[in-house]
Structures are given as structure tokens and as C-alpha cells.
Amino acid sequence: MATAITRKKVNWVLEVDIRGFFDAIDHTWMVKFIEHRIADKRIVRLIQKWLAAGVLEEGKWSSTAGGTPQGATISPLLANVYLHYVLDLWVQQWRGRVAWGEVIVVRYADDFVLGFQHEADAVRFRTDLERRLGRFGLEVHPDKTRLFRFGKHAAVNHQERGEGKPDTFDFRRCPAGC
Hints:
The chain is an alpha+beta fold. Helices cover about 45% and strands about 15% of the residues.
């Protein structure tokens, strides 16, 4: 993983958190995405039933109009399908049409980081990403999403500015603070 990143010209990292992702998944869009991939109507109906199954918390059942049950075995699979269409395919197009420099993406379910060669690309991407996610009922978490310098010159740049050590990221930590 680190080897692939070091071969690219990554000077800025955008660490993104989607606010309440598993609760915010839009069922209508999810079914459209599933129908695009799966022709068997029985499987589509089964997934629709799973989405509408509701949640049992502290002995009380409540219906769900959106989202997927967090902790359910199907939720990570559905999250990957949803973000494949909402994020992955869009990032590929954005990279080719808008970016001036190199852009890399590392995503695991709803957690992702992006590496940019140019700060201007990173800033523009974040603005465009917020607009894109909004179309699908999702929102970038403003307090948990951050842009920071990265790469071999980050430490020198920070030291010259008297900013201390540069920021880092760790996929192993829980972004929601759990």
C-alpha cells in the first residue's frame, strides 16, 4: 500500500467522513443501483425486504425509511454497491476531466482518503464531492473531514512555517470515535 502511494506525486491528503452514512443511504437509489447490477427480481425483492425490515433497539421495533441496519451482515455489501455508483465511478470521471495533477483514492466501505498532487485539486474536489453526495442524500461530516500536507516535503514545509509535525491518518482507528 505505502509503495503505491510513494510512487505517485501525493502532496495533499483529503480524509473524508460521510456523516451517518449507514443511516443516510437512500432506499430508492439503492434499489436502482441493485437493479442495474442484478437482473433476478427475486434477489432485488429480497434486498428490498432487508432494507425495510426495521431495527430492534432496546426491545422496541421501529421501521426504517432509509439507511441499512448497521451491524447487519448485508450492510457492508450494500454500502459498497451504493458508493460504487455514488463515489467510485464519479471519482474516475472527475480525475480525468477536472484534476490537473495526480489523484489516488483508497476506500474501504464508507471510509476513504484521497491523495492529490496539487492543493487546488483537493480543494475543488471537496466542493464537488459535497455537491455530488448531496444528490444522493449524503453529507460530508465537516468536523471529521480534513485536508493536510503529505509526502516527503511535508515535514520540511511544516518546520519552515513553525507548524510542528505534519498530520497523519490511520485507517485502523474508528472515524466515528467508537
